[in-house]
Amino acid sequence: MRNWRHFIAVAAISPILGGQTLAGFSAPPASQISVEDAMAAAQNGNFETARTLAISLADAGNADAQYLLGHLDQNGLGGPKNIKAAVGHFAEAAAAGQANAQFALGELAYTGDGAVKDWKRAYEWFNLAAAQGHALAKVRLGYMYAEGQFVPQDPTRAARLFEDAARRGVPAAQYHLGLLYLDGEGKARDYANAAYWFNEAAEQGDADSMYNLALILQSGRAGSTDIDGALTWMTRAAEAGVLPAQVSLGLMHYSGQGAPVSKKTAATWFRRAAEGGSAEGMFLHAVSLSEGVIAPPDFKAALAWAERSVSASSGEPPDILLERDGLRQQLRDLVAEEARRRAALTAANRPEPPPKVQVADNDPLPAPAVSKKKPVPTPAEEKPPRGLRP
Q1: How far is CA 262 from CA 64, 123, 257, in A?
Q2: CATH number of the CATH domain containing 273
Q3: 293-316: string of b/e by CB count within 10 Å (b at 16+)?
Q4: Do residues 103 and 136 make contact, with C-beta atoms less than 8 angstroms apart?
Q5: Which domain holds residue 341?
Q6: How many domains does the chain have?
Q7: Which among 133, 58, 126, 127 is positioned nearest to 96, based on CA atoms?
Q8: Start-to-end C-alpha separation, the chain
Q9: Is residue 40 part of a domain?
Q10: Tell me: the pLDDT tens digits for 290-309?
Q11: CA trace torsion 114, 162, 157, 140 (10° rounding)
Q12: Which of 12, 51, 230, 246 is the most buried (most CB within 10 A)?
């Protein structure tokens, strides 16, 4: 299955705060309030000031200020969150040709986040923004063509859109272009090019690209293996929360292939992956608990994670399901055997009750036994030790 990934919508619709240059920006004369003033206030976290300045500029017909107001309303900055008001501001700005507003309307229609989900309308807005060179709009269009969302599936066209945005430094585009080179769709399969684009995105902090780059470096498919580089990127991806990277890093430490052998380190990464929701992580964490890698074996806790692993493994290949179900059954047997042993031990250590004394109704009660021991003297009867006088 193709490992597509949506880029983060908040980053995509926040170019002002994210550093992307405004398309079609036109500043008023220096003697007046400028959009740069409103933008600077927003970048510094002074959202109420940014809103006040933007309202004055928007009333004068400034499309960039309208877009900024829409962004503030959409994200509840400097005032309550108001999607309806945001759409109104975006629509006015988009009608004036503001590319960021056109993209923002497309994104709302695409995701359905606070608006009606409509891929046709999203496609139309993305096209308008992309025609003005909006890089993120090209990424979204590339995704739609790659997946065949509303438009016929066209990997070649998707590759062109991704590449254009990737060359402009957009990490999401670099990631998706790397995937096309990796899968040989829309581009001839080329592991070196895939590694190049994953590296470009990874250097900008894209965690999924870090993981993919680590796999390529580990495999040597780009030309030669780079074990140290693979470990570095795999570790960074795992620390960034990529679940497959956490599992892979754990396996690397467990086997000593590409990382120092440390079953405790491996068990720690398996636990993090399990807690993050990885079915494979749950399985390996159950194995670690049953083997007592960090603490004494805990079959009951291991069984709980094995149960969760099986439940989370829907859609996995039959051999994977068989392996995980096999571990679950083994742990069920171990837990049952442990319970039987504990019950038997408890029974063996239970003291026997004293024998019952049979006394007839008219028989006198037995007298207490007479002690043969010398009675303990009272304090008055005790003799002082030698050498001391009373």
Answers
A1: 55, 50, 11
A2: 1.25.40.10
A3: beeeebbebbbbbbbbbbebbeeb
A4: yes
A5: 241-347
A6: 1
A7: 58
A8: 99
A9: no
A10: 999 999 999 999 999 999 99
A11: 0
A12: 246
